[in-house]
Amino acid sequence: MLIGMARKAHKKKREELEPSWGELLGGTLAFAQDTVDSAVGWGFEKLKETGDKPTDKRADRHPAAQTAENVARAAASFIGDVGASFYATYDALKEAKRKKKRARKSKNPK
Question: What is the pLDDT of residue 55?
Fold first, then answer.
């Protein structure tokens, strides 16, 4: 009987230390999503920086090339603004959701 209890205790400790396959997969997906979000956020930031750089207005440049550069910079800046706004709003929504969840838990402790 004593040996059986020791085995159960050992098994319980081992289960606490070893996450299940579902937990491993879920954690891996969360890290992958965070990595993609970081990369996309960085990309939006670089687009905004590129769009906000001053243009190089050379006299020997063809007007169509200058117009194309201006359009490309305006588009890059716009896309950068959209991305920054998206992530700022997304973060605010997630934080509000976390606060609401914490408030609910504090009202109804188990």
Answer: 77
Three-state helix/strand/coil letters over 65-109: HHHHHHHHHHHHHHHHHHHHHHHHHHHHHHHHHHHHHHHHHHHCC
- 50, 69 in Cβ contact below 8 A? no
pLDDT in tens, 11-31: 666 556 788 889 999 999 999
Distance CA(76)–CA(70), nearest Å, equals 10
CB 44 within 8 Å of CB 87:
yes
Phi/psi for 60 (5° steps) reads -85, 5
Indicate the domain borders of the chain: 37-52+61-110
Say if CB 51 and CB 74 are below 8 A apart: yes
74: tokens are 């305006």
Task: Please indicate, yes or no, whether the overall pTM of this predicted structure exceeds 0.85.
Answer: no
